[in-house]
């Protein structure tokens, strides 16, 4: 395994990290947390060295599930369906008008000049960024929205019940999309569209990743990952987060085993296995051409049958891993 450099982010929130976004235009990193804070970091790259500074940490007053940068501010989604725009200069919060969601906004993603928000209660809402208003909404009745991804050509939405809703752009009121079954048997944790637009990749709680193609379904395949084999038993860990290296078929997977793996979809093989970063699970990833950002949090509460009142989760962390070393 090749050597690589790891830089640790300073002053990271201790609570569970809900989202992690990298904005390459200005080398800004957004870290949102269940404790209601949004941390804004800057990465300064000079002579192949990386300096990470915390520019500001904003307490929004509500538990954040998702964030998305846009228009010199950040769109924020909350556990109870809150949907706000945060002005990073003034730190003012503006509520998005006509928001119908009453349950968690799990993801907010850019869509042409606007943004799409998806919620647990089955709403897809397109935000008009000029008016900070909902310009179009759709109700998905087939299940709870778990996660989603989109480009200017496609929108893919993961639902409970192992269902996936596929939309071709543009998203209109008449566009009902196509409901398909996931090839994976267990609940999906993340989905990412392949950068060349040929299909999508999904990761599930049973340590599997499936690769699906829009025009060539016979080429689909799946593989196992994030497993630990002992002499007489095999431990299987959820695949929590997926990320493509920009404009490539190189896929990173992050799991509850605390590890990150790197795969080539073209060659259908593992390229690299990174060392375990800490005792937490890898919960979110982001990154650019030369580095990978990895957020780790204690997600043991997801598998514990009983959580005691004095439960103290391990502190969260964010790391920068330099690639191609």
TrEMBL record:
<keyword id="KW-0853">WD repeat</keyword>
<feature type="repeat" description="WD">
    <location>
        <begin position="239"/>
        <end position="273"/>
    </location>
</feature>
<dbReference type="InterPro" id="IPR001680">
    <property type="entry name" value="WD40_rpt"/>
</dbReference>
<dbReference type="InterPro" id="IPR015943">
    <property type="entry name" value="WD40/YVTN_repeat-like_dom_sf"/>
</dbReference>
<dbReference type="InterPro" id="IPR036322">
    <property type="entry name" value="WD40_repeat_dom_sf"/>
</dbReference>
<dbReference type="Pfam" id="PF00400">
    <property type="entry name" value="WD40"/>
</dbReference>
<keyword id="KW-0677">Repeat</keyword>
<protein>
    <recommendedName>
        <fullName>Mitotic checkpoint protein BUB3</fullName>
    </recommendedName>
</protein>
């Amino acid at each position: 395994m090749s050597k690589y450099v790891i830089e640790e982010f300073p002053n990271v929130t201790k609570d569970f990290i809900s989202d992690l976004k990298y904005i390459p235009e200005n080398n800004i990193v957004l870290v949102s947390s269940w404790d209601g804070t949004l941390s804004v970091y800057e990465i300064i790259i000079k002579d192949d060295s990386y300096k990470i500074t915390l520019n500001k940490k904003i307490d929004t007053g509500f538990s954040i599930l998702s964030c998305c940068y846009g228009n010199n501010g950040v769109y924020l989604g909350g556990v109870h369906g809150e949907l706000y725009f945060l002005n990073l200069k003034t730190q003012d919060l503006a509520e998005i008008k006509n928001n119908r969601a009453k349950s968690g906004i799990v993801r907010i993603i850019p869509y042409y000049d606007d943004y799409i928000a998806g919620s647990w209660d089955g709403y897809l809402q397109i935000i008009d960024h000029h008016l900070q208003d909902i310009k179009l909404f759709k109700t998905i009745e087939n299940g709870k929205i778990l996660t989603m991804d989109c480009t200017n050509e496609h929108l893919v939405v993961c639902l409970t019940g192992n269902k996936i809703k596929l939309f071709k752009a543009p998203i209109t009121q008449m566009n009902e999309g196509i409901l398909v079954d996931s090839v994976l048997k267990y609940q999906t944790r993340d989905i990412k569209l392949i950068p060349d637009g040929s299909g999508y990749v999904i990761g599930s709680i049973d340590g599997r990743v499936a690769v699906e193609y829009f025009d060539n379904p016979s080429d689909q395949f799946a593989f196992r990952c994030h497993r630990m084999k002992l002499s007489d038993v095999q431990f299987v860990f959820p695949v929590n987060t997926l990320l493509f290296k920009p404009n490539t078929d190189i896929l990173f997977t992050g799991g509850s085993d605390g590890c990150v793996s790197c795969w080539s979809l073209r060659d259908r093989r593992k390229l690299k296995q990174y060392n375990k970063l800490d005792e937490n699970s890898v919960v979110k990833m982001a990154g650019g051409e030369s580095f990978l950002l990895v957020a780790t949090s204690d997600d043991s509460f997801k598998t514990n049958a009983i959580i005691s009142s004095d439960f103290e989760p391990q502190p969260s962390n964010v790391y920068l891993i330099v690639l191609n070393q």
